[in-house]
Amino acid sequence: MHFRPKFTSEQIAALRLAYEQAVYEVYRSGQTIKLSIGEDSPQLNDLMRAYQVASWAIITASNPYSQCLTESENRQLGQQLQEYLQKLNFSVLQAAGKDRRGEWTPEQSFLILGIEADQAIAIGQKFAQNAIVYGKLNQPAKLIWVQN
Fold first, then answer.
1. Which residues of 67-86 are buried (b: 16+ CB within 10 A; e: fewer)?
2. How does strand 31-35 pair with strand 142-145?
3. Using only C-alpha atoms, what is the Rg of the chain?
4. What are φ and ψ of residue 87, in 5° steps?
5. Would you say 135 and 44 are in contact if contact means Cβ atoms under 8 Å apart?
6. End-to-end CA distance of the chain
7. What's the mean per-residue pLDDT of the chain?
8. Are 127 and 65 in contact (CB under 8 A)?
9. What is the rounded distance in angstroms from the CA atom of residue 66 to the CA atom of residue 68?
10. Which residues make Cβ contacts (< 8 Å) with residue 28, sequence separation at least 6?
11. Is 14 helix (H, G, I), strand (E, B) or coil?
């Protein structure tokens, strides 16, 4: 269980901005699909059509509540998330969240195909995340804040 810090409104605003400015990458068969908040991705739309799904989410288990952990701890949490997603029978691809300047370590993430927003939010909360990235076919990626 991870301790949830009390963030000030300024800290929440800074975190939201960092998440909104991040680049989210999805890896499939040697191809990298880059996603940005507020933008639609024709490559991701093609992938969704191939899997015959209408929605998706990117979720990480790294750095719960934006508190930096070691690479080993994050890898272990990522394994737990991957195992959890496998039990739910979603189509899942490897992904990563990165900052545009390369100042922080990329966060191992997963693209979950065919997931609805409420279920994605619940998984984000279960894995102590502040936010998830969510989208639908032919619509821009959205950042959804999942913590109160």
1. eeeeeeebeebbeebeeebe
2. unpaired
3. 14
4. -65, -30
5. yes
6. 17
7. 94
8. no
9. 6
10. 47, 93
11. helix
Cα–Cα distances in Å, from 26 out to 8, 11, 45, 47? 32, 28, 12, 10
With contact defined as beta carbons under 8 Å apart, do 124 and 59 qualify? yes
Longest dimension (CA), the chain: 43
Amino acid at 48: M
Q: What is the pLDDT of residue 6?
A: 81
Asked if 77 and 61 touch (Cβ cutoff 8 Å), the reply is yes
pLDDT in single tens digits along all 148 residues of the chain:
566 778 888 988 998 999 999 999 999 999 999 999 999 999 999 999 999 999 999 999 999 999 999 999 999 999 999 999 999 999 999 999 999 888 888 999 999 999 999 999 999 999 999 999 999 999 999 999 997 5
Residue 14 has which token pair? 């800074």
